[in-house]
């Protein structure tokens, strides 16, 4: 294939590594050396992740965590445009400013729907397994070229600005990958089985309502622990829904599957473990409380969890 | 014993130690308790960190968004909304919720996202609408509006996507039931996702409407004047 997901990672790596050069040179940053090392190493893991032996990547990860743990990651100065500069540019560019921003979703959708199976020569244009991510990568690259031409900026200016945003996110940028790592370790250590045994030990297996409630609440809780409903679904469904609902009461799997998965999503809305949905945006939007997004989501999540339990109970009653 | 890792995570988040440290400690502890060697654990860290690089793809959008912000994108988004009289924070977020959820239900999950849509466009519009009505916003209100903007993106995506039959979640469920010899069918699974998808839209729209009312009340009380 011409463009694989690895190509996108190389793009990310270049942006992050180049950005770290400004961090090393940033005299306003009291910890410019350790902060620079942090972003440099992160860029290296993105660039060369598939080449570096896993053990050494693991060590690099631990070094980055150690930098954060010892307070070595600090903000610097980013020579932001002043309000006057921004409004002067805005008067010139006006609504054209929206074009590159909107090009990102539009081009991604075009890539996903129409360029999916396009071959150039004998090879696929896009990595067939990662069409969405590769499309997004290419779309942002095209949008970047358009915005550079429009604003008459150099690539270095773009890297500097991306450094400003990335350092706003800071350590939170690493968190989603670290949590996925923890999920893997939890799975190999058998945490999932232990949790589903715990839930099974508590619920009365003869009561349809309590089985339904235990399955939905179990999905939400387990998702909150793992940070990922996809990890919870096989464990909780194999532990509760298959033996008790589907085999014992003869409920149709099609009727409970989505409701079970949605209960997991309710958990996703309530946990800092789903960092890419809850913590990274809080960092990206400069919120004082990193759990602010979760706080806003909890009422909706709880109402919908109750709705899922009620809906599943009604559906299973009809199936009986 | 393996649940100690879970306990570390819960306590760590409650005591508010840096999550990165909590997660690393929980991983090391869980691995050691399951009698894995330190070398194996570090190797697992490396492998999982590398395979999950796709979670960093949002970084690809940062150069464009950063550049456009430098040239005034956020202010432009704010000013567009300020001209529309009927625009309120809640209404703008409701419109975005509908777009996000409908697009996800049609399989277009890439319309949206925190880095490319919420930070440069949705949040400034939601803030701009409130500013046009109530003047300069105190920090806690600004944070509330931003948090709501991020929440809408999540809720629209989550409860829309399972309505689409070819989405990862549906395929994962299909694969799971196949493995366990239980008959299932993507079309029917997606169909039974619709009630919750509709409920999510209704419940959250009502909450956004109430958010508008609470903003209105707040500013009436604080400075004794209403809309400009």
UniProtKB/TrEMBL annotation, chain A:
This is Permease. Pfam families: DUF979 (PF06166).
TrEMBL record, chain B:
It holds the Pfam family DUF969. InterPro entries: DUF969. This is Uncharacterized protein.
């Amino acid at each position: 294939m011409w463009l694989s997901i690895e190509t996108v990672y190389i793009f990310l790596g270049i942006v992050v590594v180049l950005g770290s050069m400004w961090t090393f040179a940033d005299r306003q940053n009291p910890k410019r050396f350790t902060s620079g090392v942090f972003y440099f190493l992160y860029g290296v893991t993105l660039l060369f992740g598939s080449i570096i032996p896993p053990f050494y990547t693991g060590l690099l990860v631990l070094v980055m965590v150690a930098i954060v743990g010892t307070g070595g990651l600090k903000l610097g100065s980013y020579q932001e445009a002043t309000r006057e500069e921004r409004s002067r540019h805005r008067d010139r560019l006006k609504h054209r400013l929206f074009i590159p921003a909107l090009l990102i979703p539009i081009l991604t959708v075009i890539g996903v729907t129409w360029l999916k199976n396009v071959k150039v020569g004998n090879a696929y244009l896009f990595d067939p397994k990662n069409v969405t991510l590769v499309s997004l990568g290419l779309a942002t690259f095209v949008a970047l070229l358009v915005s550079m031409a429009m604003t008459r900026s150099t690539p270095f200016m773009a890297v500097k600005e991306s450094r400003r945003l990335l350092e706003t996110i800071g350590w939170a940028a690493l968190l989603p990958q670290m949590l996925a790592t923890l999920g893997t370790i939890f799975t190999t250590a058998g945490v999932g089985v232990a949790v589903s045994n715990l839930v099974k030990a508590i619920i009365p297996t003869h009561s349809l309502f309590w089985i339904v409630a235990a399955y939905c609440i179990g999905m939400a809780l387990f998702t909150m622990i793992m940070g990922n409903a996809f990890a919870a679904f096989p464990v909780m469904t194999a532990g509760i829904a298959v033996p008790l609902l589907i085999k014992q009461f003869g409920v149709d799997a099609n009727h409970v599957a989505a409701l079970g998965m949605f209960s997991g999503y309710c958990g996703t809305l309530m946990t800092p473990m789903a960092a890419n949905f809850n913590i990274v945006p809080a960092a990206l939007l400069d919120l004082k409380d990193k759990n602010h997004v979760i706080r806003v989501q909890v009422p909706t999540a709880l109402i919908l969890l109750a709705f899922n339990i009620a809906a599943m109970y009604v559906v299973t009653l009809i199936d009986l | 014993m393996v649940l100690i890792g879970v306990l570390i995570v819960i306590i760590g988040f409650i005591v508010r130690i840096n999550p990165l440290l909590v997660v690393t400690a929980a991983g090391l502890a869980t691995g050691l308790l399951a009698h894995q060697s330190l070398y194996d654990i570090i190797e697992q860290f490396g492998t999982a960190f590398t395979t999950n690089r796709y979670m960093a793809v949002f970084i690809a959008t940062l150069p464009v968004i950063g550049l456009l912000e430098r040239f005034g994108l956020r202010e432009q988004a704010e000013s567009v909304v300020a001209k529309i009289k009927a625009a309120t924070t809640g209404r703008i977020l409701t419109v975005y919720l509908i777009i996000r959820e409908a697009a996800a239900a049609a399989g277009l999950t890439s319309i949206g996202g925190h880095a490319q849509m919420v930070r440069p466009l949705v949040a400034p519009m939601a803030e701009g609408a409130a500013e046009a009505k109530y003047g300069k916003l105190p920090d806690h209100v600004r944070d509330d509006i931003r948090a709501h903007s991020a929440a809408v993106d999540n809720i629209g995506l989550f409860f829309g996507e399972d309505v689409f039959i070819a989405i990862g979640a549906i395929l994962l469920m299909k694969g799971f039931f196949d493995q366990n010899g239980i008959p299932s069918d993507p079309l029917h699974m997606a169909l039974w996702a619709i009630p919750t998808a509709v409920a999510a839209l209704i419940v959250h729209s009502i909450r956004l409407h109430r958010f508008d009312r609470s903003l209105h009340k707040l500013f009436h009380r604080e400075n004794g004047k209403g809309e400009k």
